[in-house]
Task: structure prediction
Amino acid sequence: MRISIRQRLTAWYAAALLLGLGIFALGMWVALQERLIAGVDARLAQRMQGLETALGPEAEIKDRAQLQQELGEFIRETPDGSLVQLRDSAGTVLSASPGQPIPLQHGAHQSCTEVIGGRPFRIYATRLPTAGAVFDAQVAMPLDEILGVMRDFRHLLLLMIPGVLLVACAGGYWLSSRALRPVDEITTVARSISLQNLSQRISVPQTGDELQRMAQAWNDVLGRLDVAVERIRQFTSDASHELRTPLALIRATAELALRRERDTEGYQTSLRQIENEAEHMTALTESLLTLARADAGSLRQVADVDR
Result:
C-alpha cells in the first residue's frame, strides 16, 4: 500500500510529538515526585526539630517515666497517621506512636521509604545527642496523599496525551496539505504541458524556499526541452526539403525517359542521373540514421558493428 507524502509527514510528526510528550511526561513525573518527597522530608525535619525541643537538654537527668510522659504529649500532638519513635543508646524503645513499630535506621539525617503495616511511609532518622546521652529518633509520615496525587497525575497524562496527539496529528495533516498545495499546482500545470504548448511555464512562487527552486528547475527543463523540440522540428523540415529535391529529380527524369522512345545512350544517361540522386538520398538517409543513433546514445554500438 502506497503512503502519500502528507501521511508520511503526519506519521513522522506524530512519532516525534509522541516521543517529546513521553519525555516531557516522564520529566514532569520525576520532578513532581521529587518535589512532593522533598516537601515530606522538610515536614519530617520540622517534626524532628520539635521532638528535639520536646526532649530538651536535660533528658539524661529525667527519670524514665517523666521522659515518656513528655514524649507521649508530643506524640499526641502529631497529626494522625504520623509515627514517632525514640530509642536510647541501648536500643530500648522509650516512646513510640501506637501501631506498627518503625524499622530502626542507623545513621544521622537519613531518609528512606519503607512499607509499614502495608502502607508506604517516608522515614526520617537521626541521632539526638544531649548533655550525657544519645537517642536514636525516627519520625515517619504516610505517603498515601502523595501516591494519590501521583495516581491522579498519571490518569491526567493518560487522558491528555492521546487527545493532544490526535489534535496535533490533525493539525499536522492540515499543515502538510497546505505546505504541499503548491506542489499539486505545479504538478497540474506540468501535466497540462505537451509538445503543442512547450512555451507555457510554471508560475514561480517568490518564497525563497525549495518550492521556488523546484518551479525554477521545472521551467529550466521546459526551456531546454522547448529548444530541443524546436531544433528537431527544424531538422525535420530541412531533412524533408533535402529529400524532396532528389525525389523530384528522380521522378522527373523517369517521366521524361518514359514519354518517348530513346536510344540506349539516352536511357543510360537517365538511369545515371537517377543513380546519382539515389546515392545522394542514401547518403542523406544514412546521415539521418547516424544522428538518430547518436541522440539515443548508441554511437559506440554503431562503431563496434561497423568494425
About this structure: The chain is about 65% helix and 10% strand. The mean pLDDT is 78. The beta strands are 83-87, 93-96, 110-116, 119-129, 134-142. The longest strand covers residues 119-129.
